[in-house]
Amino acid sequence: MLMQKRIIYGIDIARGSPRARELPRYALAILKDGEVLHQSMLRRQKIFNMIQRERPEIIAVDNIFELAANRSELLSLMEKLPEGVKLVQVTGGLHPEPLVRLARKHGLSFDPENPNDEAEICARLADMGVGHEVSLFEDITKIKVSRARSLGRGGWSQNRYRRKVHGAVLQRSREIENTLKDLSREKGIRFEAVNVKGFGGYVRSEFTVYAKRGEVPIHPMASNDAQVSVRSVERDKIRYIPLKPKNPRRKFTIVGIDPGTTVGIAILSLEGELLYLKSSRGMAPDEVVKLIAEYGKPAVIASDVTPMPGSVEKIRRSFNAVPASPGIEVSAEEKIALGKTFGYSNDHERDALTAALLTYRSYKNIFSRIEKKAPQNADLELIKFHVIRGASIEAAIEKVRVSGEPEKSRQREHAEKTEDRSVDESHLKIRETVQRQSEQIQNLQEYLEELKKELLAKDRKISKLESRLNSFKKEAYSEIRKSKEIKIRDETIESLKKEVSHKNKTVKELRRRSNKLRKIQKMEVRGEGTAVKVIAAFTKESIAETKEKYGLKTGDVVFLENPSGGGTATAQILVEAGVRAVLIPEDISHAAEETFFKGDVPVLKNIPLERAEDFAMAEPEILKVAIAAWEKEADEKRHKAKEDELQSLFDEYRSERRRGLV
């Protein structure tokens, strides 16, 4: 039987972009045991069809967002990948490294302008174990069993139909539950079930299985009455998991352990990358040791509590690793803040991750100094390991050979050194201990000096910032004062504008009235008409308003637009004003008419007028005739009144004579 070849797909975008309107085209390099096959200008869907057929071990890209425009689209694509197919970003995880530099580091070269070359380099780097697997899903699978169709509005057989559907959901749920129980017994995979009961069975059932989708032997299906959906639980953030290099030297690691019934394990590289984070119930110490060993050689094993628990100490001794613990109690808030970037599923994982991260932070400054002081091509990881074990940076560098020397030479030199060690073993150990402690003191003194310099620099920076802040405060105060003054001025200007606007309206109105008066005056002078001032109502207020606007002088003719309501007092105002005549459209009260008669003011009814707002014009001849007629009638009325008065006196005299009073 022929062994199946390892297949790796390298993909690089050749034209367009997932964010553009036009669909992008890709270059594809298929790597099968060292042999490369190139295909150009393929659409994404065609590549995914090929992935479904060939099921490559790895899909390698230099940037995952060349395949998808956003996280949602990437999630949709990854859900369609066959089980066991990994999507790998070869340039790194959260902090990608340029592809050109990465290729040069691993002895590869290519043309950055050629998409086919880039696709091939991605495939070859992934084949060498370079890159990070992209993980968008938690190790949790959700299974949902529900009815396959609606129950409808009902009818005479509705209950029987409902019982049939709910019974089918119940039966399918029990089958899945039995399968998951077998899986739990065989592999220790935990699951939870929630059932919603209905008439004759279950309305729906939901299972939460704490394992990857590929480890759960349940597949989506649908029948006439029930359906099953299976999906992975999406992570809050994309997680990047480093690939294991081919034929690697065992890497040195920092391991955080949270012991107990459920054991939490976090493994970091000496560069601070998270290699492993998981918790498992009922793990034996030897199983923990075996798992940690798979990810490298622990340089430090840490716990988040002080003193280190006995079970963690036992695992530490198995690797002869350096112990570490924070020395103080770490609050839950600090733990959450530390682990937020990496993500975790429970408190056990969080505590293990806290222990590993705090340990890495305690060495971070020393590691930075090692990277500055170490010669080019030196094995930085091995130097860091020696420093963790207690050596000074200089001593550690001397112990580690430049990586370009042949391995045999290294082994021979090591053998020669071993042969030269003829000194008494106990005396040597004492010397090494003293030397190590002296070097540690020197390192700490150097570190203290660096911290003092950093503190001095920060004090200077704070002083400068405080000075700038005071300057900003002064400027801000000045600006605030200016703005207040400007605001007050703006309000004053706005008030004056309103006042000017009001006065302009008044001036405009007075000009309009003046123009009217001039026009009427001209007409009077030319004899074209007699001006008549219109009073809206026969009231004191209306008379006063007309007097204020246009004035009332001796000889004016007025027109009472609404003569009703006026009496003796109102009529007397017009009499005293000396008006020439009062024109009315209808009868006025007897008292008012009598007052006008006594004041010798003609009251004329139904005189034809030509109106113009508050003024009117009357024909001079018609007005003259009407006034003459009224005066004639008034004379007759006065003459008759005198005759009546004389007759009354004569009658009174005759009466008194008859009575002998005269």
From TrEMBL:
InterPro entries with a match to the protein in the record: DUF460 (IPR007408)
Source species, domain of life: Archaea
Coiled-coil residue spans: 434-513, 627-659
Start and end residues of each stretch annotated as Disordered: 401-427
Swiss-Prot/TrEMBL keywords: Coiled coil
Keyword ATP-binding assigned: no
Keyword Amino-acid biosynthesis attributed: no
Protein name, as recorded: DUF460 domain-containing protein
Species of the source: Methanosarcina spelaei
